[in-house]
Amino acid sequence: MGKVLGFFILAMCTLICETTIFKPISDSHRSAALDLLTPKDGSFESLEVTYKALRSFEVLGTGKQPDIKAVICKSVVDTLRSPSSASKDLFQALRVNRILKCELNNEAFAGIASRLKDNVNSGGSVGSLVLIEGQAFKVDVHLGGADSVFRAIKALSQSDGRWRYSSNDPESSTFAAGIALESLAGVVSLASSEIDNSLSVFEFPVPIRGFGSQFRHFSPTIVALLFRLICNFQLCSSIKDSSSLELNF
């Protein structure tokens, strides 16, 4: 009797769970997304727009993507191999490549990493090195002077929690803070040795600090997400068009 009752309770719980699962995205939504986001001429206007569309397909779980990989990958490869590509463009190309996995060998990634490491002066350059680390495991992306990069980013912080986009730009915002904190998290992950303890960005209460010194390595990422959420709720009304945003230090 007990086994039967146990089985009945388990079956009821399973039924209740299945009936309460919320599925906000239907197949019709996915189909509409494909129709709306697929470029009519076979290419997007920029790599940033390309990434946003591909990421939308990925998040929505469309199961398929428009047959435009060849065209996009050509743009990605050309951008990554061009010695004149700005760090911001390299960042967008690497984001697209993370999804499409275009044909690039370790030698190409090593060349990009070398260029970026010689001049780490923007959030895009840090983000690009992090992306290379995830796409080419044998390429050395570690920063020898991570402390100085960390200090340069931290110097842009404001007393109200906002961040400036550069030392020459007085404008500050929570969106820039999110970019800065993500960059700090990237610097920590790329550092060839542990970051100087005196460079802590936040002081956490004693109970939280008790989880160990390694917790601070995750704090930039955690707070970056919080700032991005705040920015989204505020609709970033005071922020410039995202395509023109770059953190320079």
UniProtKB/TrEMBL annotation:
Residues 1-19 form the signal peptide. GO terms for biological process: protein N-linked glycosylation. Residues 25-197 form the Ribophorin II N-terminal domain. Pathway: Protein modification; protein glycosylation. The keyword Endoplasmic reticulum applies. Keywords: Endoplasmic reticulum, Signal. One of its GO terms (cellular component) is oligosaccharyltransferase complex. The keyword Phosphoprotein does not apply. It is found in: Endoplasmic reticulum membrane. PANTHER family: DOLICHYL-DIPHOSPHOOLIGOSACCHARIDE--PROTEIN GLYCOSYLTRANSFERASE SUBUNIT 2, RIBOPHORIN II. Component of the oligosaccharyltransferase (OST) complex. Subunit of the oligosaccharyl transferase (OST) complex that catalyzes the initial transfer of a defined glycan (Glc(3)Man(9)GlcNAc(2) in eukaryotes) from the lipid carrier dolichol-pyrophosphate to an asparagine residue within an Asn-X-Ser/Thr consensus motif in nascent polypeptide chains, the first step in protein N-glycosylation. N-glycosylation occurs cotranslationally and the complex associates with the Sec61 complex at the channel-forming translocon complex that mediates protein translocation across the endoplasmic reticulum (ER). All subunits are required for a maximal enzyme activity. This is Dolichyl-diphosphooligosaccharide--protein glycosyltransferase subunit 2. It comes from Nicotiana sylvestris (Wood tobacco).
